[in-house]
Amino acid sequence: MVVLILGGSLVVPAAGDPGDQQRLEQLAREKQELERAVQIARQNAERYRQSADRFQSAVDEASARIAGLAAEQARAQNAADVVKYRIAIAEEQLALVAVQLGETQALVGSLQAQAGELTRQLAVREQVYAAHLRATYVRSRIGPLEMLLSSRSLADFVSQVNAMILISRQDRQLVGEIRRLRSQTEEKRAQAAEREQEMAGLRRQIETQRAGLARETAEYERLVRAVQASIDVEAGERADVAAERDRARSAVRRTNDETAQLNRRLEQTEAAYAALAADLAARSGLATFNGRMDVWPLSGVVTSGFGPRWGGFHNGLDIAAPMYTPVRAAAAGQVVTVGKPYLAFGDTATVVIIAHGSNFSTLYGHLDDWKAPRVKVGQFVTAGTVIGYVGMTGWTTGPHVHFTTIVDGRAVDPRPYLP
Q1: Angstrom distance (rounded) from CA 369 to CA 392
Q2: How far from 358 is each of 282, 284, 315, CA to CA, in Å?
């Protein structure tokens, strides 16, 4: 009596030794629990992986936002640096203006001093000219005859006439000097006032420019600080999400390790089933099978091969085909198992096992129930005999047949034995 659960299929022979039945029931329960645990572990691993992917997407989005903010911050910082350079230039201009203003003030002082000296000279000239005017006025009231008669001698008369001529000539010179001095004084004062006004205007212009640049710099620096604050917030959120991602990835690794351990235990249980199937084949009375199979169980696409799968091990070939496609015996042999007696454990797969020799068996899983298997336990079949039809019984995601070969008590790759 043998039960074999492979790829989610659960089957038992119709009859057999009670001891074998008891062992099979124990193995069936253990295998059922392990398969459920593997399924849950795989679901958990997938859920953790999806969570890790979502967290990674969030990390990537946060990184992109941080990169954008960093670029914005760099632009603001560059603009602030440019304004600082302009402020430095304005400071240099102010320093130059200060020097020029000092020179201008010195020049204005010199011009004012010159104007003062000219004013003093002008006052002296005006006093002399006033004295000349008074003398000229007094002399103008004395006629030439009176002057001649009042002179002590002819030489005295000539001296008085020469004095009058000299005074008249000096008066003309004084008038010219007075006019020149007044013009120079006004010119110096106008120059001083113009330079003072020019320097004051330039100073106001540069100070206004510097104040504007300072406000502009403050605004850029405020923007840089605000962007940095946003970057810090984004970086904190990114770190939190990255921590969640790392925890999810760790959970995936732990779950994968648990799945691998469960799969190893499942493989051990399936190996025990294979050993029981081999024992049943050995007791079938058939000769040793040393050849190859004659046909494939059906024509279809192999969707999952023999070997590692999902952190565990797949012990056969999954061959996909449309529902109700006939499934044929791969070689001549005796049917040793048909059915699905362990519905109480939740497994609804229908399986047929054929012994082709005392050392060689084949298993056909997920057969359809509506078009039930066409063979019975103990029946001898030839290669190509229709034994059932493609279905979706048991744990499966689509119509296919799980095909396994059991040689000397263990499942092996069917391909080397297929034509």
Answers
A1: 9
A2: 4, 7, 20
Q: How far apart are the C-alpha atoms of 358 and 208, rounded to whole Å?
A: 107
Q: Enter the CATH code of domain 18-40+267-417.
A: 2.70.70.10
The average pLDDT across 351-359 equals 91
C-alpha radius of gyration, the chain, whole number: 60
Reported in sequence order, the residue ranges of 265-391 that DSSP labels E, i.e. its strands, are 301-304, 307-309, 312-314, 317-320, 326-328, 333-339, 351-357, 360-365, 380-381, 386-389
Which of 216 and 377 is assigned the larger pLDDT? Answer: 377
- Cβ contacts of 206 within 8 Å, gap of 6 or more: 90, 93, 94, 97
What stretch of H or E contains 406? strand 400-407
Q: What is the chain's mean pLDDT, rounded? A: 76
Q: In this predicted structure, what is the pLDDT of residue 197?
A: 83
The residue type found at 11 is V
* Residue 108 near residue 245, CB atoms below 8 Å: no
Place of tokens 């509506």: 370
Mean pLDDT of 18-25: 59
The candidate with the shortest Cα–Cα distance to 388, out of 347, 342, 335, 343, is 335
Residue 294 has pLDDT above 70, yes or no: yes
What is the rounded distance in angstroms from the CA atom of residue 176 to the CA atom of residue 297? Answer: 139
* ∠ Cα 74 76 78 (to 5°): 65
Q: 365 has which bridge partners?
A: 402
Q: What is the pTM of this model?
A: 0.45
164/170 Cα distance (integer angstroms): 10
Of residues 406, 13, 274, the one with CA closest to residue 1: 13
Answer whether 18-40+267-417 and 64-241 agree in fold.
no
Closest CA to 301 of 317, 314, 319: 319
What is the C-alpha to C-alpha distance for residues 319 and 385, in angstroms, rounded to an integer?
A: 18
> Bridge-partner residues for 400, per DSSP?
320, 391
Whether 328 and 387 have beta carbons less than 8 Å apart is answered as yes
Cβ atoms of residues 2 and 337 within 8 Å? yes
Helices and strands in the chain, H and E counts: 3, 12
Triad 216, 222, 223: Cα angle to 5° = 90
- Segments making up each domain of the chain, as ranges: 18-40+267-417, 64-241
**Residue 146: partners with Cβ closer than 8 Å, 6 or more residues away:** none
User: What is the CATH code of the structural domain delimited by 64-241?
Assistant: 1.10.287
